[in-house]
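Field: COMPLEX_INPUT
Field: COMPONENT_COUNT = four
Field: RESIDUE_TOTAL = 690
Field: MODE = joint
Values follow.
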Amino acid sequence: MANIDDVARLAGVSKGTVSNVFTQKRGVRKEVAERVLKAAQALNFKPNYWARTLSMKQTSIIGLRMPGENTKFSKFHLSLINGVLQTCFEHGYRLLVNTLATDYQEMPKYMTTNPVDGEIFLDPEHNDARLMQRTELDPPAVVVGRPPEALRHRLCYVDNDNETTAEQVTSYLLELGHRDILFLNTSQQRTVSVDRKRGYEKALIQAGIALKPKLHIFKNPSTPSLDYGFRSIRELVTKGVSFSAVVTDTDKVALGVYRAAAELGLSIPNDISVFAFSDDSVFSPEFHPPLSGVSLNAEELGREAANLLIRRIQDNSAPIVHQTILSNLVVRQSCRNLNSTIIHL
Amino acid sequence: MANIDDVARLAGVSKGTVSNVFTQKRGVRKEVAERVLKAAQALNFKPNYWARTLSMKQTSIIGLRMPGENTKFSKFHLSLINGVLQTCFEHGYRLLVNTLATDYQEMPKYMTTNPVDGEIFLDPEHNDARLMQRTELDPPAVVVGRPPEALRHRLCYVDNDNETTAEQVTSYLLELGHRDILFLNTSQQRTVSVDRKRGYEKALIQAGIALKPKLHIFKNPSTPSLDYGFRSIRELVTKGVSFSAVVTDTDKVALGVYRAAAELGLSIPNDISVFAFSDDSVFSPEFHPPLSGVSLNAEELGREAANLLIRRIQDNSAPIVHQTILSNLVVRQSCRNLNSTIIHL
DNA sequence: CTGAAAGCGCTTACAG
DNA sequence: CTGAAAGCGCTTACAG
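Field: COMPLEX_OUTPUT
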């Protein structure tokens, strides 16, 4: 592969001049620039990305970091990533998905600086190792979701108002006359589980309803979403725990609930009402009955997270920002109004 | 940020030795290695990724390239990416999603080498600029899908046997007694559209059925999938074109068909049977009626593409491989058997 | 096993 | 506007 010296020689200029033609940071006489470009083309030359990076100390790459290792992206992540990519596209950044095993990172061989200008952290947890280990020297970061309390004021983040949303969903079900509302929450280590828990309990307490521990379940991180919904319902029903409505973490969990109901011969919404957080599937309307849910606007979360990050990369004096993205309830037909004899629309 | 010299000084060794401790390519006396590691830790030192890359000439990053610009990932891509990431994880690679606008790449400022060891190309098209422009000097590539004919023998690729699958799907519908089978194919510029077209026509011809051009439609790339399904059906029905079955590009297109049918007061499967390629949603079974489709095993496509690529990166004499991933028909309840009066299961 | 030096391929003051 | 030289922070023969 031709390098900058070859081009300089062929064009009859110094390599500084070749560099200037490409970086466009310093003007070069038009005629000279053309000669250089022509020489570059003839030699199939492009500036070496890593050499440039080494001297410029910036990569125009932003990183995306999942919790744990080898986690799979969900559909929520998909929308989020599409949002991130859109912003990347607009600003000329690339996106690097970090998949390195954490024990790799302990090995000297793989212990290196992170080849990005900044990073987006997904699905923060309470004692999030990724976040806790960060030092002042690390590149800028933006979290999607609420960071651990201890780091909250030090980090940029973009989040929905999950507490309020959970409260709204619960209130909605209360208004429909439900009293025993099962909450299939996400796994307890995720910070969002606390926010939703708070909203859920707040609504119940406000309505003067006692909290029943049996009706609030946290996901086991290793259980697939579908099974989580399916098994929880089957188990509770078998045990004779009664509930008339269930709020699920995602529409995939809700799907598990639908399947369990079908197997148990229970009707949705007549026997069980269902409401899902994270209504990120275009298919929810095709559920039978169409599934009510809250739309988190994942794409916007991603877009804004990337925007915040790029702003901080380009201006390290940019302020720490906490941005809230609107989420909205989408009421379809999976919840029954117990106050009337007809099914709630 | 501390560099290798600082560490060498603190540990009282040369920087070559520090390097050896980290790269582990040459043995270092245990006692010395520990001293170096301790010094590194004290200074919060990690080898600089870019500097290492520049001298080693490998990044341990593989690229993912979409066609066109700023395209969004679909659910098919999501599964595929999850497969790629799994392989990356196993081999210690990172994944870089290239989102740069192509006109950026024409600007000297953004014209650089690609910072990856190899690339995976998605959704190949007939005169795919990404592929056509490649030179011998570019890093190894693997295509997911069939490359343009001219490049076929020169490139590794992983693909389903789309022709056979399309033939099977069509035959299945023919066996059910359908004669007017509408095919909502993907956009014409994608190579896969040709394979499916071939399979579809082959089955029809074999059954002695004349091809009706009106019953074979190609997607307009800029039309959203849902609209494509919805509008095509509405338009054809309005125009009085008759068909009893429709094969769609994806389950999202099928969803559009479902909606159009609902609006037109047509029943699925009684009035229209539906069969979808790319059954990559966990939600298809929840359609009403459950949607029959072909599962492309996107995750495996991704896993194998990454495997092939990494093999070629690590051994540039590795052979050019064309790998076929099995796809399988999943028959649910969206197709009617015209030969009997009951609905086909 | 260890050190000193050259080299990877750029960019960037500095001097003209 | 242009050139010569230093520097970015590593790795890798080479010599011991």
